[in-house]
Amino acid sequence: MQLETPRRVPPFIPLALVLSLSLGCSAELPGSGPSSPTVGPAAQSDGKPSVDTVGEPTAGMPTAGMPPVANPALCAAAALAPARVRKITDEQYANLVSDLFPGVTPLAVVTPGAESTTIKDSDEFVVRSPLVNQYHLAAVDTATQVGLRLSELLPCSTGVSDVGTRTSCATEFIQTFAPRAYRRPVSSTEGAALLAVFEVGATASFSRGVELVVQSVLQSADFIYRTELGEATAPGPEVALTPYEVASSLAFFFLGRGPDPELLQAASLGSLSNANQVQTQIARLMALPDVQARLDRLFIQVLGANKSLTAERDPALFPQLDARLRSSMAEEVNQLVNENVWGSGSLPGLFTSHRGLLDEQLGAFYGVSVGASTTAQVMELPATQRSGILTRGATLLGLRTGSRSVHRGLFLSEKYLCRSVPTPPAALQAQIDSIPAQNLTDREISELRASKPECSACHAQFDGLGLAFEHYDLIGSYLTERDGAPVNATGALAGTDVDGPFDGVLELSSRFATSHDVANCISQEVMSFALGRHLSSPETCSVKQLVEPWSKGPKRLDDLLRLLTDSHLYLNRTKGT
Amino acid sequence: MKRWNPRLESTRRGLLRGLAGAGLAWPFARLLDPRLSDAQAAAPQRLLVIDMPNCTWLPEWVPTGGRNVQQASGDAKVFQYGLSSSPVEAIRQYTTIINGIGIDRPGGDPHVASQIHFMSGDVKLDAGSNSPSIDQILAKNSPTLKAGQIVPSVTLSAHTTGESEQPSIHIISFDDNLQAIQPQNSPYEAYRSLFSGIAATPLPPGDETAAAAKLAQNRSVLDFVDASIHSMIARAPAYEKQKLDAHLQGLRELEQRLLVTQNTSGAALPDPAAMQNLALNSTQDHDKVINSFFSILKAGFEFDLTRVGTFMFASGHNWVNMKQSYLPNLSQNGNVHEVTHIDYAGKNVDMRMITGWYLDHVVTFVQNLANTRDIGGGTILDNTLIVFFSEVAITGNGLNAQHDSSNIPLLMIGGQALGNEGGRCLQYSGRTTNDFWATIAPKLGVAMDNFGNPGSNTGKLPELFTG
Q1: Which residue of B has its CA nearest to A12?
Q2: What are the contacts of A557-563 at 24+ separation with CB within 8 A?
Q3: Is B185 an interface residue toward A (CB < 8 Å)?
Q4: Which of B167, B192, B246 is closest, CB to CB, to A128?
Q5: At what angle do helices A163-182 and A188-202 cross, to 10 degrees?
Q6: C-beta separation of A553 from A450 below 8 A
Q7: What is the number of CB-based contacts under 8 A between chain A and chain B?
Q8: Of A15, A11, A25, whose CA–CA distance to A458 is shortest?
Q9: What does the pLDDT read at residue B164?
Q10: Mind spelling out the 3-state secondary structure of A37-49?
Q11: φ and ψ of B79, to 5 deg
Q12: Cα separation, A124 vs B179, whole angstroms
């Protein structure tokens, strides 16, 4: 069973958010209501700038469900991420170790909780005992592999014959290995400490000494964390990232690994404190095929089209949804994004493109004959059924099951309009409980909610959006009828810069293509990933200001990446205390 | 042989000084071997919280009879389990079933808010907790739970994802700084956290010198790592200190665990090879993951590596498809949380089967603990208080699929040495889970007038314990 019931559904099939009829939502719409009186990053009692989720209801912040509003007063103050330390992701860990020791296969490190979060390098991750243990075991394993291949990885190790040559070779290893691991120069104190560790192991063997150095570095804070602290002595409330921190930020975002030689060299020359040099490096990185593929995946995730391989559907109900079709859907959306990030397209093209990469199976799924070709090819899709990313299988398959109006509406509301919905106060539960079971369609349930002010305050923001997808079933097949009647996919968009009625997701996509609000939201999401944090409301405001000129232009997404990563917001932090 | 007592050496440096003073004669495995220490050691006490999310059909869960505590009537030992709770009959003698206790959550997602409020007594709506969770409070403050600390607590979950992207749907533990403790969802990693490096058999005499040398090497590495974290604390803003302190604590736990080098007891460790390739957060291996976690918990208790644990069968949105792999006779196909939200005739029967499936695992685990001798006499179960709960129950006729936390499924199992007599049914009315924990905490040596939000407390629960 998948919870799009073929005919009628009970009225409040809520899952948690269906129940989120909320008295906490306001009928105010973005742009129409007062924005937060808070100016600048609010400070908590511990002095840490508050980190509130995008749009999350916070005392003094815009009413829940509303996208952040550009308020000049709000944006006037510094709205930077705080100076901080961030744990590297599991992927970054693996890449760093592999790059340090080519040919070595590091043990996988799996951060508890990472599977449940979208931003894998969030500064909220804490390294606790289980993860400390994993780092320990992985470091021991890597060190053992290094020890077995020492003559290859450290040629001078074959010539150690006395204390002098031993120390000299160990020093060479430390001076080469540690700066690359730390992504910065290593101080003489740190070098001496590592040499002391080496000497403990060297009483057994030279190899053992090197292994202990490897273990030490790979478990040390300087390896496991990225710092974004800037120069401690810098005056004023803001601090610029150091050149080495800039190198790491660019490298981890664009490459998913530590700084490459060019970045390290630029950092060592101090040139990454120069805007032109930063732009040069960004341009270089963005031209790399691996970087483009990586950023394609980022956009696919930001746009919510990343679940075609994993979304669960009942095979008995959808036997055609096999691994091959899922893979074809993933490849199709990858091509769509790639074309509109790096090719001739742009953000509007993502919403309006009628071209799709089709193989025989996906073509049949969309009702397009691909002929005798054995390879996938870019073809025109049925213009009345498929247009842009919201109508592609990869997106539709990833939509949550359950109440269509709610879950599909929340998807659009959260992913494309950056709205969030507060949870309901307990008092509402009794009201929900009092509603008797009725045999209503999803649209009828939505209309019932719309008739109740306590429900509509929140549900009006997304129920209608969700019904725009009514032409598509749970795996994205196109429907002309539901519940024995022609599909009704009409709705109305409210609270945006492209308000008005629409009929179906194709019309909605056309609106989104021209919407500044949607462009701003996507920009905020990309910036969240780039910074590895859920942006505070002041930060979202600053992002909006930053991208406003871009959102009024052709909206090229490669331009957006350059704009965000070369920005004051990205390269500076609020100084910590 | 004197038993090493980490209480006396709570700091890392103090610990190492103690080992140096012992001449590094490699006594650690024996010193930490509970079975060789029975004569000297007092029985440990332990706490395990088991969470079975959103599975219970309340009308069929509640027992009939028993002791109406507030009316001071009835016999606690004369009662019948409900249809859904009937599997507990198999461990009746160890179990107190408690009815009429609610979670006083102020709103929020019924699952997230309820499970957090149950554990911390003061949920912050959708944004975590206003109070540390009870497992962390007790692990840190209970003299008897602290006494055996090598790994102060373990936080485990057999399935951490669900339909929702709510970041807290799988979290029930919060540390002193109110930071969420992400549960470990991998049995293999949980195994490695507790047992890696522990040899299955005693080291040959000649290897003890090598083991001592290895200890010295480990020490030099961990000293370096320790210094690196302290250096980062010195450079980072003060608000990052909490995070880095947690890392330091983890390092201390690693160091202490590395001292346990061999299993000389003859008791079996779980087989990590069987855990290594389990599919995590899946339906297909849900059963194996649960069994693995229970075997890890049992061994962790048996070797006295940890005394506090939490274990969630799944996230607050249980996303396991029972019909697909375990209960083919269910009339509805879908993930558990989906099923709880569908209206259909016979839903009570499906819910009963799902609850029974989970309870059967609990029963087997409890029986294993009851058959395992503990340090200082008695069984592991005698000294381990297991609190079993579900954060919501399906109420009414279930057709509206209401998730209600005003009366939650709640069991106390084992812990006879703490005064849980077992074989009892206690009926309360209008009492809260805050009251429940405020009553339990003193039993573990932590004075507590109120737990969590004072406004959610109505007083201690009389008659909860008999001893």
Answers
A1: B400
A2: A557/A299, A557/A340, A557/A341, A557/A346, A557/A347, A557/A350, A558/A286, A558/A341, A558/A342, A560/A347, A560/A522, A560/A523, A560/A526, A561/A282, A561/A286, A561/A295, A561/A526, A562/A279, A562/A282, A562/A283, A562/A286
A3: yes
A4: B246
A5: 130
A6: no
A7: 239
A8: A25
A9: 59
A10: CCCCCCECCCCCE
A11: -160, 170
A12: 9
Most A CBs within 10 Å, among B165, B195, B247, B324, to test the A interface: B247
Q: How far apart, in Å, are the Cα atoms of B201 and each of B191, B205, B306?
A: 17, 12, 21
Q: Three-class SS of residue B224?
A: helix
From chain A, the residues in CB contact with B339 under 8 A are 1
Question: Between A355 and B40, whose confidence is greater?
Answer: A355
Residue-wise pLDDT for A208-243, tens only, equals 999 999 999 999 999 999 999 999 888 888 999 999
Separation CA B183–CA B169 (nearest Å): 11
Q: Which of residues 197-226 of B touch A (CB under 8 A)?
A: 213, 216-217, 220-221, 224-225
Partner-chain residue, chosen from B249, B280, B338, that has the shortest CB–CB distance to A3: B338
Percent of chain B predicted with pLDDT > 90: 63
Residues near B389 by beta carbon (within 8 Å), at least 6 away in sequence:
B49, B50, B51, B52, B118, B408, B409, B410, B411, B433
Give me B225's structure tokens. 């790592």
pLDDT in tens, B314-330: 998 898 999 989 999 99
- Does residue B314 sit at the A interface (CB-CB below 8 Å)? no
Mean pLDDT, range B173-182, rounded to an integer:
92
Taking residue B330's Cβ as centre, other Cβ atoms within 10 Å add up to 23
Of the given ranges (A8-12, A464-468, B36-40), which has the lowest mean pLDDT? A8-12
Tokens of A381: 């899709």
- Identify the band that residue A67 occupies on the pLDDT scale cut at 50, 70 and 90: very low
For A266-319, write each residue's pLDDT tens digit.
999 998 988 889 999 999 999 999 999 999 999 999 999 999 998 888 888 899
pLDDT in tens, B179-206: 999 999 999 999 998 888 776 666 666 6
Binned at pLDDT 50, 70 and 90, residue B295 comes out as very high
How much is the average pLDDT of A39-53? 34
Q: pLDDT of A184-196, one tens digit each?
A: 999 999 999 999 9
**Nearest-angstrom CA–CA distance, B271 and B269:** 6
Q: Rounded mean pLDDT of B255-266?
A: 72
- Distance between CA atoms of A88 and A94, rounded to whole angstroms? 10
Contact B62, B88 (CB under 8 A): no
User: What mean pLDDT, rounded, does chain B reach?
Assistant: 85
Lookup: tokens for B334: 């879908």
Taking only Cα atoms into account, the Rg of chain B, rounded to an integer number of angstroms, comes to 22
User: Rounded to whole angstroms, what are the CA distances from A213 to A153, A173, A485, B16, B36?
Assistant: 14, 9, 71, 20, 37
User: Length of chain B, please?
Assistant: 467
Sign of CA dihedral B441, B443, B444, B449: positive
State whether A16 and B232 contact (CB < 8 Å).
no
Work out the pLDDT band at A84, boundaries 50, 70, 90: very high
Give every CB contact of residue A150 below 8 A, 6+ residues apart in sequence.
Answer: A157, A206, A207, A210
Q: What string of H, E and C letters represents the secondary structure of A221-258?
A: HHHHEEEECCCCCCCCCEEECCHHHHHHHHHHHHHCCC
B107 near A CB under 8 A: yes
Q: What is the pLDDT of residue A577?
A: 76
Instruction: Give one DSSP letter per residue of A96-161, joined into a string.
Output: HHHHHSTT--PPP---TTGGG-S-TT-TT----HHHHHHHHHHHHHHHHHHHHTHHHH-GGGGG--
Tell me the C-alpha distance between A252 and A495, whole Å.
36
> Which of A46, A132, A216 lies at the smallest CB-CB distance from B221?
A216
Task: Give the HSE-up count for residue A314: Cα atoms under 13 Å, Cβ half-sphere.
Answer: 19
